Amino acid sequence: MQIYLIRHGIAADRNAQTTDAERPLTEKGRKKTQGVAQRLATLGVRFDALLTSPLVRAKQTAAILQQTGLAARYELFTPLAPGGDIHLWVNWYQLQTYNAIALVGHQPDLGQWGEQLVWGDHRANADRLILKKAGMIGVKLNPNGNPLGNGELFLLTSPKWFLAN
Amino acid sequence: MQIYLIRHGIAADRNAQTTDAERPLTEKGRKKTQGVAQRLATLGVRFDALLTSPLVRAKQTAAILQQTGLAARYELFTPLAPGGDIHLWVNWYQLQTYNAIALVGHQPDLGQWGEQLVWGDHRANADRLILKKAGMIGVKLNPNGNPLGNGELFLLTSPKWFLAN
User: At the top level of CATH, which class does the domain A2-12+19-163 belong to?
Assistant: First the structure.
């Protein structure tokens, strides 16, 4: 059971017309995200479920992953919005029997969730996992017992390391 | 200040003629290691210091990294042999002013050292970082204070994710 925590791509700055929730991916953000999605597809990755924060920049990231063939569909999932509580989606997760799922969301939440899955808690006042935009964290979860504190980290990468060029 | 903990490539099995310390890289191990080294070079990585466990499979891995232009030379460093104590090389490290260093060694030591750099300790009886052969862990170290427990993980990858094809 593998979980991929994927950060949204580079988004446009806030302006007078858009709220934070409405900020779209920039052209560069879209391109890098497409590159990452293509690499995942080439490597044979496929998500049984693809859930995303409802914010536009995350939703657009999930749409790119879906359009690249990594998942049949994507679904909005409010616990992935900024400041979401890990227990809200872990409760959902425990009802599933998937092999691989992807959650698209935001920092610092994703990095803290990664720490919680692997080490059971996260450092106060300090992020221990550097997660860049369109980067990802891969955690292998133990199918038995509490998902928190029983995971094994198998991947942490930014697009820089992941993209072929 | 970045530290790369690099695991040796795939090595031949032990046989009647070779001790564990003498096991060389296989042809596949050599090829994958060369691919990883080439990718690092393409990405502009350069090590100010490249230290290796004295075991043959590690030394050959370090030689490939050096030959690819990632470092001017490599040096044998006995604290990197299997079962080495992190404090032995951290004491050395604290005397250096390098921007990027690479340590070539073995599991489970490298994964445990990565955990110690980032979280201060490592889980007893369980490895939390999955580090495959010719894979690597990248940690950004805080130049001030104790290197243990103050690092930030920026990379954890196996060759599978890192190589372009």
Answer: alpha beta
Domain ranges of chain B: 2-12+19-163
Question: Which sign does the torsion angle of CA A62, A68, A70, A75 carry?
Answer: positive
Cβ contacts (< 8 Å) between A111 and chain B: which residues?
Answer: none
* The two structure tokens encoding residue A1: 């059971």
Going residue by residue through chain B, which has 165 residues, state the pLDDT in tens, using 9 for 90 and above.
Answer: 899 999 999 999 988 888 999 999 999 999 999 999 999 999 999 999 999 999 999 999 999 999 999 999 999 999 999 999 899 888 888 778 889 999 999 999 999 999 999 988 877 677 899 999 999 999 999 877 788 999 999 999 999 999 976
Q: What is the DSSP string of B104-116?
A: EE-TTHHHHHHHH
Neighbours of A42 (CB within 10 A): 12
* B140/A128 Cβ within 8 A: no
| Confidence (pTM) | 0.95
Residue bearing tokens 């964290």:
A137
> Which of B155, B158, B163, B165 is the best mutation test for A, with the most CBs of A within 10 A?
B155
3-state secondary structure (DSSP) of residue B91? helix
- φ, ψ dihedrals at B108, nearest 5°: -85, 5
Contacts B165 to A, Cβ<8 Å: 164
